[in-house]
Specification:
586 residues, alpha+beta, Nucleotidyltransferase, domain 5, Actin, Chain A, domain 4, Substrate Binding Domain Of DNAk, Chain A, domain 1, 4 domains, 6-stranded mixed β-sheet, 5-stranded mixed β-sheet, elongated, ATP-dependent protein folding chaperone, chaperone, nucleotide-binding
């Protein structure tokens, strides 16, 4: 709090802030690497590729720091209420991924709290705003905080006396917030001082911390004034003696420094609207959340987009906590007749044959949710499969975020395509994922609860969204080609099996023709010409019909043609999965 802030100037290396930007992240994430360059405290690589920060003479995980904050809040609340607190509802940015949500829940548990629910910040804000209102409304919550940005589109309605608050879409950036604007101001102050004095104060950690305090103060002042004075006496010294910093920052200059972040927030808002069933004209209210929304340029940008005045009647710093309190009341049973329906921000699925990402739960699906799909093996006598879980919107698994892998073994040996492996995704009301795989014949089962220390960086999320849009046509072309190759491989396998099963009952000319067509198809499969692949597949299919005709002519009356059994029957919902063999299958 303020005590920590006031001593930051003399103790910058051991004063921590913005920990929410690091929790659940991987140290190698580009957003984290940017913070490493600008942070006065040390950010280093932790266990399993995660992040740790240095305070005093030891390192801490972000979860531990968050737990310290929660412990202080818990103690303050207990002092106020006069009783012990054991349970909590904790809010997170809507765009927090599975790892970040799990890390936040861990922080609560470290603080000695039973975390009853993880709730999205924009959803909590809408809950606080819409609570006890009887009219139906479409609401946009624009949440520009210190370290993250989120926007959610919600629908508040009254259904048979029960108030329903349903999230229809959400979008955001977990590495964009007021701290990024602060860094822009710090850079501007340092550059201006360097022009004037020739001294680069960014090399001095103590001076840099003083710049940070001055930048925040100027930004806050410019929400109500047109010009702010920045005075830092004895900022540094040179051969001529002490040097003082005295500058003026105008609101117009601040708006120019902030323009890229404001423009980006508006683009994200437009994406969220496009993903919802509503148009701009349908929106009844726009609620501003987060301290950064006090900035006039942000208010103006939101007003220009929606053509109406944003709702600023609720304290932007308190509205989220108020919504969390209402959610706690719902869970306790003290608040009745309120139904809250939240969503997941990114699609969840597994890697299947050809490195395709097969989605099981689509983005903006209401949670809690459960989806199952049956897959099969990609090789004969495969006794083990690897389940690779991914998160994102791209058609190819490698372009999405890898959440984890696990092995299901003990599958009875059988021809490819015959075993049935049911994969089930369960996502709870906190947005935390569990995955289960079960082989139906043997009953063998394996499961995983995603607990990776790394999270989605800003770059991961931006690439998932923007590349999905920019490369949509190329992605679709690649997906169609891979599906055609998968079908071609299955067709060639079926043709070869039919020839083996039929033996010498197939005339030599027919056998030679089918074998030649199989060779042609395999050759076409190695290329990238979709038309040539389709043509070769069609020609092989026609040639295979002759096997059936030959068998029918030579078979005694009443006998079934072996060729008719050449292709194993599959259930409609079974997909070939590119599962890798484990030790048992090798």
């Amino acid at each position: 709090g303020l005590l920590a802030k006031s001593q930051a100037v003399t103790n910058p290396q051991s004063t921590l802030y913005g920990i929410k930007r690091l929790i659940g992240h991987n140290f190698s994430d580009e957003g984290v690497q940017r913070d490493v360059k600008t942070s006065p405290f040390e950010i280093a690589a932790g266990d399993q590729g995660g992040v740790k920060v240095k305070m005093g003479d030891r390192f801490y995980r972000p979860e531990e720091i968050s737990a310290m904050v929660l412990q202080k809040l818990k103690a303050d609340a207990e002092a106020k209420l006069g009783e012990k607190i054991t349970d909590a509802v904790i809010t997170v940015p809507a765009y927090f991924n599975d790892s970040q949500r799990k890390a936040t829940k861990d922080a609560g548990e470290i603080a000695g709290l039973n975390v009853k629910r993880i709730i999205n910040e924009p959803t909590a804000a809408a809950l606080a705003y819409g609570f006890n209102k009887k009219k139906d409304e479409k609401i946009v919550v624009y949440d520009f905080g210190g370290g993250t940005f989120d926007v959610s589109v919600l629908e508040v309605s009254d259904v048979d006396g029960e108030q329903s608050i349903e999230v229809r879409s959400t979008d955001g950036d977990v590495h964009m917030g007021g701290e990024d604007i602060d860094q822009k101001i710090i850079r501007w102050i340092a550059d201006e001082f360097k022009k004037e004095s020739g001294i680069d104060v960014t090399k001095d950690m103590l001076a840099l911390q003083r710049l940070k305090g001055a930048a925040e103060k100027a930004k806050h002042e410019l929400s109500t004034t047109m010009e702010a004075e920045i005075n830092i006496p004895f900022i540094t010294s040179d051969a001529s003696g002490p040097r003082h910093l005295a500058l003026k920052l105008t609101r117009a200059a601040l708006e120019q420094l902030s323009s890229e972040y404001i423009a980006k927030s508006i683009e994200i808002t437009k994406r969220a609207l496009a993903a919802s069933p509503f148009k701009i004209a349908d929106i009844n209210e726009v609620i501003l959340v987060g301290g950064q929304t006090r900035m006039p340029a942000i208010v103006n940008a939101v007003r220009d987009l929606f053509g109406k005045e944003p709702n600023r009647t609720i304290n932007p710093d308190e509205v989220v906590a108020a919504g969390a309190a209402i959610q706690a009341g719902i869970l306790q049973g003290d608040v009745k007749d309120v139904l809250l329906l939240d969503v997941i921000p990114l699609s969840l699925g597994i890697e299947t044959m050809g490195s395709v990402a097969t989605k099981l739960i689509e983005k903006n699906t209401t949670i809690p949710a459960s989806r199952s799909q049956t897959f099969s093996t990609a090789a004969d006598n495969q006794t083990s499969v690897e389940i690779h879980i991914v998160q994102g919107e791209r058609p190819m698994a490698s372009h999405n975020k890898s959440l984890g892998r696990f092995i299901l073994d003990g599958i009875p040996p059988a021809p490819r395509g015959m075993p049935q492996v049911e994969v089930t995704f369960d996502i709870d009301a906190n947005g935390i994922l569990s995955v289960k795989a079960k082989e139906k014949a043997s009953g063998k089962e394996q499961s995983i609860r995603i607990e990776a220390s790394s999270g989605l960086s800003k770059e991961d999320i931006e690439k998932m969204k923007h590349e999905a849009e920019a490369n949509a046509a190329e992605d679709e072309k690649k997906r169609v080609l891979i599906e055609a190759k998968n079908m071609a491989e299955q067709l060639a396998y079926t043709a070869e099996k039919a020839l083996r099963d039929a033996g010498d009952k197939v005339p030599a000319t027919v056998r030679a023709d089918v074998e030649a067509k199989v060779v042609e198809l395999k050759k076409a499969k190695e290329g990238a010409d979709i038309d040539a692949l389709k043509k070769a597949s069609e020609e092989l299919s026609l040639a295979m019909q002759k096997i059936g005709e030959s068998m029918a002519q030579s078979a005694p009356a009443g006998d079934a043609a072996p060729g008719a059994e050449a292709e194993p029957k599959k259930e409609d919902n079974i997909r070939d999965a590119d599962f890798k063999e484990g030790e048992e299958g090798k």
